[in-house]
Amino acid sequence: MKKEKILVAMSGGVDSAVAALLLKQQGFETAGITMQLWSSAHTVIDDDAPTSLDENCLDAKKVADSLGIAHYSVALGDTFRKSVIDRFISEYGQAKTPNPCVFCNKYIKFGVLLDKAHSLGFDRLATGHYVRIEKSNDGKFLLKKATDKNKDQSYFLWSLSNEVLSSVTFPLGELTKDEIRKIAAENSLACAHRSDSQDICFIPNGDYVSFIQNNSTLDSPCGNFIDLDGNILGEHQGLIRYTVGQRKGLGIALGRPMFVAEKNAERNTVTLCEDAQLYKDTLTANSINLIACDRFDAPVRLEAKIRYRHTASPATVEQISEDRLLVKFDTPQRAIAKGQSLVLYDGDTVVGGGIIE
């Protein structure tokens, strides 16, 4: 029988390196591929531009060489800029709080890179994500939480279609981070003790404001802080400087703790409130993608997450149009932010998700 060919997206880190190692040990015909997004000056490079290998690419190639597998690199900077960076900046300008990792997974890793894998003759693409796939009795490919719940990344993958899930694999889904580092050390992988990336890849210092100012012409002028009744409280320094739920760094003293409740791009206002007023029990979401079913024909009981580090909470979910969901939580949730991802779970199964309106 012909060996299945699996191309591994390798970042230079320990997770993707162990993913490649495990697949080779399991007998698959394996190779690695690394995306190049930045030049040595940390500017976006053109797609398919001839460039020297960057640090991540060199680290990934070193691991591939040690495993005796081929390694490819592909320049995708222009596509990344259009699909991820420009979208991120645009949504911030619309007073939303976007999640760029969701865009990257949908359009880059499991879009362009998956297409590249197929064009190179590979059957599937593998990544080092902490998540699992199972095939249901009716033939659907189900996205499941990872065994290591502290590392689970299913929240970021809700937008993947069944067609995509049928062409990808996640070798680390059953393992813990400690087990992965142990495997890397036992096999003398150079990246065994490399620290995990903590920030958004294109904003390594977490300074969103400077990044937006330096990489766009987005105008974010000063405007009014207001309260929930519309009374003016003072002047804000531009919508991009604030996030829903924020308390510190507001630059205004009101004699009591106040938090960002809402941003309005049309009126250029930032609404402030007390902590108790941040809690809401209802939201709507659009741009929905359902994985475990085709649609909700009736209200259904699920658990819902409104951001990555949020604990999934019981809710009633109703599909109110082809592309919109209404979610009513059993208990009010704090700081629901427009632009963040809503992700729905039935136990360990990702039912689907959408973008909070």
Structure, explained:
This protein has 357 residues and is of the alpha/beta class. Helices cover 24% and strands 30% of the residues. The strands form 3 sheets. Strands 12-15-14-13-16-17 form a 6-stranded antiparallel β-barrel. A 5-stranded parallel β-sheet has the order 3-2-1-4-7, sandwiched between helices. Helix 1 (14-25) packs parallel to helix 2 (55-67) and helix 3 packs antiparallel against helix 4. The longest helix has 20 residues, at 100-119.
Strand order of the largest sheet: 12-15-14-13-16-17
Characterize the overall form.
globular
Helix content: 10-25%
Tally of helical runs: 7
**Cα-to-Cα separation, first versus last residue:** 50 Å
What percent strand?
25-35%
Instruction: Note the main sheet.
Output: 6 strands, antiparallel, barrel
- Average pLDDT figure: 93
Based on helices, strands and strand pairing, what is the structural class? alpha/beta
Low-confidence stretches: none
Question: How many runs of DSSP E, i.e. beta strands?
Answer: 17
Q: What letter string, H or E per element, gives the SSE order?
A: EHEHEHHEEEHEHHEEEEEEEEEE
Backbone CA Rg:
22 Å
Outline of this structure?
The protein is α/β, with parallel strands linked by helices and 357 residues long.
Features:
7 helices; alpha/beta; six-stranded antiparallel beta barrel; 357 residues; single chain; globular
Question: What is the topological layout?
Answer:
Layout: E1 5-9, H1 14-25, E2 29-36, H2 55-67, E3 70-75, H3 77-93, H4 100-119, E4 124-126, E5 131-135, E6 141-145, H5 162-165, E7 168-169, H6 177-186, H7 208-215, E8 223-226, E9 232-236, E10 259-264, E11 269-273, E12 279-290, E13 300-305, E14 313-321, E15 324-334, E16 341-346, E17 349-356
Parallel strand pairs: 1-2, 1-4, 2-3, 4-7, 8-11
Antiparallel strand pairs: 5-6, 6-17, 8-9, 10-11, 12-15, 12-17, 13-14, 13-16, 14-15, 16-17
